[in-house]
Amino acid sequence: MNKIKAVIVEDSRLARNELKELIKQHKEIEVVGEAENVDAGFELINNSNPDLLFLDINMPEKDGFELLEMLDQVPMTIFTTAFDEYAIKSFEYNAFDYLLKPINQKRFSQSILKVLDSINNVTKGEGKENVLSLDKQIFIKDGEKCWLVKIKDIYLFEIVGNYTRVFFQEEKPLLYKSLNQIEEKLPSDVYFRANRQQIININHVNKVISWFNGKLKIEMNSGDEIEISRRQSYIFKDKLSF
User: Fold this and answer.
1) Half-sphere exposure of 36 (CA within 13 A, CB side)
2) Among candidate residues 14, 91, 92, 5, the one with its CA nearest the CA of residue 54
3) What is the Cα–Cα distance from 50 to 8, expressed in whole angstroms?
4) Cα dist. 120→62, 114, 123 in Å?
5) pLDDT tens digits, residue range 148-169?
6) CB 34 within 8 A of CB 10
7) Distance (Å, whole) CA 70 – CA 53
8) Residue 126 pLDDT more than 50?
9) Could you tell me which residues are beta bridge partners of residue 52?
10) Contact at 8 Å (CB) between 97 and 114?
11) How far is residue 102's CA from residue 67's CA, in Å, rounded to a whole number?
């Protein structure tokens, strides 16, 4: 297995050094960079495309949650912080793990084992560099709630004004990007533009119904019904070869 590329974003030099010492015990992981604030971390992540992010939450100017909000796609994230009050909030983000400072060697090793198991079970997406693989995560913040969501778990994107509503599980938060911006980054073999307003995940389609004027209606596993425009219905039939 190739080495796991890791990045550390932490404002304390001492804490960064302690993390690097812990990581040295795990030869599978290579630290490809470190940053002491959010803006430097953002640039580092975009340049190095790491598999794993060790992220402090409480940093000056911008916090770790704001960094996640800036990223188009989020590496596997392990929060590191001295403030356990953030624990519940971090799990709302669906963080991969959460380590409380000072970090215990045994607890750190358990977290790394989880990382290795997860990476071994993930089939990495192939394709254009700017297209998200199905197992990549995106960050969504809507009001006080925040999520890290795998692309494959999103079954519907829908225009709401200048923004986009994202449907996964029982959640329907707003993402502050246009549908066209999102469509450019979605894998086209799985996501299909049903009409001007909606993009569906064909892996979440339960039933395809013939509709009037040559159009199709889709029933999603969630129970949502989506009408495919006439033009897109012909393309959809060809895509699914029926």
Assistant:
1) 6
2) 5
3) 10
4) 33, 10, 8
5) 888 999 999 999 998 999 999 9
6) yes
7) 14
8) no
9) 6, 76
10) yes
11) 22
The CATH class, in words, for 152-240 is mainly beta
pLDDT of 135: 82
Number of Cβ within a 10 Å radius of residue 64: 26
Write down the domain spans for the chain. Answer: 4-121, 152-240
* Residues 76, 81, 86, 92, Cα dihedral to 10°: 0
First to last CA, the chain: 40
Q: What are phi and psi of 208, to 5 degrees?
A: -115, 125
Q: Is the pLDDT of residue 123 over 50?
A: no
Task: Give pTM, 2 decimals.
Answer: 0.68
Torsion of CA 15, 19, 20, 22, to 10 degrees: 140
Task: Please say whether the beta carbons of 30 and 5 come within 8 A.
Answer: yes
Whether residue 75 is preceded by a cis peptide bond, meaning omega within 30 degrees of 0, is no
Tokens 């796991």 — which residue? 4
Query: For position 156, what pLDDT does the model report?
Result: 98
Range picked from 32-41, 61-70, 72-81 for highest mean pLDDT: 32-41
Largest Cα span, the chain: 67
Sequence-ordered list of residues with C-beta below 8 angstroms from that of 22, at least 6 positions apart, any chain: 103, 105, 108
* CATH class of the domain whose range is 4-121: alpha beta
pLDDT for residue 17 is more than 60: yes
The Cα–Cα gap between 241 and 239 comes to 6
pLDDT number for residue 72: 82
> In one letter, which amino acid is 149?
V
Nearest to 173 by CA among 138, 197, 207, 202: 138
Q: What SS3 class is residue 135?
A: coil
